Amino acid sequence: MESGAHAGLQTADQVTAQLKRKQAEERKRFLAEGAEHSGQGKETIYRDASGRIINVAMKRAEARKKAEEEAAKAAAEIEAQKGDVQRAERERKKEALKDAKYMPVARYEDDREMNEEMKERERWNDPAAQFLVKKRAGRSVTGKPLYTGAFTPNRYGIRPGHRWDGVDRGNGFEKEYFAARNRRRDLKELDYAWQMDE
């Protein structure tokens, strides 16, 4: 029989002994053949749907390379979204950090660079700022020329470039923004004046 027991009428002990003998023979043969036939210790072979062998290390390397390319692409997109002014500001800060290595720890009022830097800084509430002569003659932070004519202000304080033809192509949001801001300020001042009258 297939199970290793003889055919015919037998007792349970005889069948058990025959099965144990067959199992012992199979185990002995298995151990004699060693790990070569069992596949123990061998690397797993992966195959695709058509049966071709897949190189797992190469696939992992390709996936890693693809992930690195996507990360580089995302970083490039983020960098592209930043403007020229932000790039120039970052470069200026890097240069300032490089120069700071060689600066003395204490800076006094006779430090020419510090004085020039303080003069160049624009302050929104400086009453004497109108007396200072601006050295920048129509140049932006990036070095490009600026528009010299009159223009409507925007909420960011960005002047138009020198190629602007003077036509406002906006949807009117900036005008409404400034009108609402001025209205809010006027109401606040009026409310304050009414409170002082009481």
Architecture blueprint of SSEs:
Blueprint: H1 12-33, H2 35-38, E1 46-47, E2 53-54, H3 56-81, H4 84-100, H5 112-120, H6 173-197
Antiparallel strand pairs: 1-2
Characterization of the model:
- This protein is mainly α.
- 52% of the residues lie in helices and 2% in strands.
- It contains six helices and two strands, in the order ααββαααα.
- It has helices at residues 12-33, 35-38, 56-81, 84-100, 112-120, 173-197; strands at 46-47, 53-54.
- The chain has a two-stranded antiparallel sheet.
- A hairpin with a 5-residue loop joins β1 (46-47) and β2.
- The longest helix is centred in the middle third of the chain and has 26 residues, at 56-81.
- The model has no long low-confidence stretch (mean pLDDT 84).
Q: Beta-sheet strand percentage? A: under 5%
SSE order, one letter for each helix or strand: HHEEHHHH
Q: Could you estimate the helical fraction of the residues in percent?
A: 40-55%
| Helix vs. strand class | mainly alpha
Count the E strands: 2
Could you list the spans in which at least 5 consecutive residues all have pLDDT below 50? none
Main sheet: strand order: 1-2
Count of alpha/pi helices? 6
What's the gist of this structure?
The chain has 198 residues and is mainly α. The chain is built from 6 helices and 2 strands.
Kindly list the characteristics that best describe this protein:
198 residues; mainly alpha; two-stranded antiparallel sheet; 2 strands; 52% helix; elongated
